[in-house]
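SEQUENCE-TO-STRUCTURE ENTRY
===========================
What this section holds: a protein sequence and its matching fold, both as plain text.
Tokens: labelled as protein backbone structure tokens, with as many entries as the chain has residues.
Question of interest: how does this chain fold, as expressed in backbone structure tokens?
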Amino acid sequence: MSRPAHSAPAAPQAPGAHPASNLKGVLAMAVAMALYMTNDTLLKLALRDLPLGESLAIRTLVAALLLLAIAAHAGDLKAMAFGLERRVMMRSGMDTATTLLYVAALGALPIASITTIYMAAPLMTTALAVPLLGEKVGWKSWGAIAVGFAGAIIVTRPDPDTFSAIALLPLMAAFCGSLRDITTRGIGMQVPGSVVGFASSVMVTLVCLVFAAWEPWRVPSAADLAYLTGAAVAFASGTLCLVYAFRNAPVASVSPLRYLLVLGALISGYFVFGDLPDAWTTMGILLVVGAGLYALKVEHQRSRDERRAARHAASGASVMGHAACAPPQD
């Protein structure tokens, strides 16, 4: 998943240009979503007893130490200086904003509602990939983006009588997360994923420590420490998988897989917190997940058509080459 800093840089290649690389990126994204939902569940359990800043500071500090150990084991410590590069710092800043906004909502709203609203992130990422990365998105995908975003808005309770401003926090987190994912694509392959994750964890930890100035921090119980340690392991592992996914597959292919978080949130919300989605949330989930799956289908069809056209073009060029080399006939 990472490469030593002293390795010679490989020739540039578009993410997902290789079918095997594309598949690995998709699988890594699916694993990352399962790990992130585990992180969310354990963190929400800890937030019942501990304040936001303290919970995040402990979790991200443990995660940073884990990522540092992974980097040391992989021989990537010499690459830690890459953590100060402009794009890595930009990603760390976006990741910090995403984390704070999302976790602030996590302590106040049902996990299924937060997750569904946050699912505007892959829609925003796919849309932003057009002007920022030059990727092509067809009109069908744009339609799916519009429908899915409408579903996320529905979950925020647009009715003035039921609307909560807190519901806007995961929507803001989605926008920051989209910029984070776009920025990840611009980080060179010479920067190991462990370094990228470590840089983000350090920045989040430092920002959260500032919360101690006005938050009444408490001594965590053994259960809270277990929750936060488990969340740190899941978060660190998920970060590595996420970085790998966006480096090895097109954004439009891996981004819709974030919708797996909705299924995880429903399972977690019911079995861990005893929450059941109401009519608003159910409608939003159907729109968001349906749009995401449709966008994934459209992207898969488009990629298959492009590969087929490329094979035909290569076959045609080969035939023309043989014809040009054939001896003249009498």
Notes: Residues 279-325 form the longest helix (47 residues). Confidence is low (pLDDT under 50) at residues 1-14. The two ends are 59 Å apart (CA to CA).
